[in-house]
Amino acid sequence: xxxxxxxxxxxxxxxxxxxxxxxxxxxxxxxxxxxxxxxxxxxxxxxxxxxxxxxxxxxxxxxxxxxxxxxxxxxxxxxxxxxxxxxxxxxxxxxxxxxxxxxxxxxxxxxxxxxxxxxxxxxxxxxxxxxxxxxxxxxxxxxxxxxxxxxxxxxxxxxxxxxxxxxxxxxxxxxxxxxxxxxxxxxxxxxxxxxxxxxxxxxxxxxxxxxxxxxxxxxxxxxxxxxxxxxxxxxxxxxxxxxxxxxxxxxxxxxxxxxxxxxxxxxxxxxxxxxxxxxxxxxxxxxxxxxxxxxxxxxxxxxxxxxxxxxxxxxxxxxxxxxxx
Length: 325
Fold this sequence. Notes:
The chain has a single domain (4-22, 98-321), classed as Arc Repressor Mutant, subunit A (Orthogonal Bundle), CATH 1.10.10.10. It has 15 helices and 13 strands. It has helices spanning 9-12, 23-31, 34-44, 50-56, 61-73, 95-98, 101-114, 162-166, 178-181, 188-194, 197-207, 213-220, 224-236, 258-261, 264-277; strands spanning 77-83, 88-93, 125-127, 133-134, 137-140, 152-156, 240-244, 252-256, 286-290, 295-296, 299-302, 315-317, 320-321.
């Protein structure tokens, strides 16, 4: 993969200046929260009532209310009255929210592939079109060829810079007591990346060739203690590997493992979604080309059995059909 977004003037010229988030920055800011992802995951399988979210997640009233309000405010859910006395509401996907399903399926797929001990919470996906259990493949809509980190060329678009991607990442740090909340225990591997906004942008930068602590700090601008904590956790979950350099014994690099590289599909799906629902008048954040066919990258999920494009309405999880618009 061409790694031009890893550095250079475009990547750093606005650091230290408050810059409005671009489309990808909005998406990373929204999805970089473990509770938000788990709420949307339940919504995909039909959960809509407040009481049902509470029953299925070890989440406090305050946290659930704040996350639902945020999803409504962001236009992913619509709040609908279904009972008047007493008033009761359900939370239903909008078109924008329903379009998140490829990301959640991709995360689901990653967890099944790399964390087999958690398969009780990630049952198989069944493609209703062909009737087979499947592991959908992130593919090019033009040639239907697989899209992986090594066959995509990427460069900054007019709205692209790291500063505008990370500008919405200065939020709370996830507590080290997260196990008490229960959220992290659902998908610990995937949540090590997508459950924290800084972790997400660190992995994205690593995919573009950033490796040294000082370079992550220069390109992304996180507080050093936060960066050290995130890098340590990503190494603990085998997303990154800290490698001592033979040429400089006191230097080390953080290199993506195979597990880490496999997050490329999920991150690319975030870009797909973000560019669709947060269009910037300046233009695209990233210019992506699928090298095998030479066409602009537009990703889809394809069934690994029947080779047909997968649609949200044609996915079954443990006999519970996903509810997409």
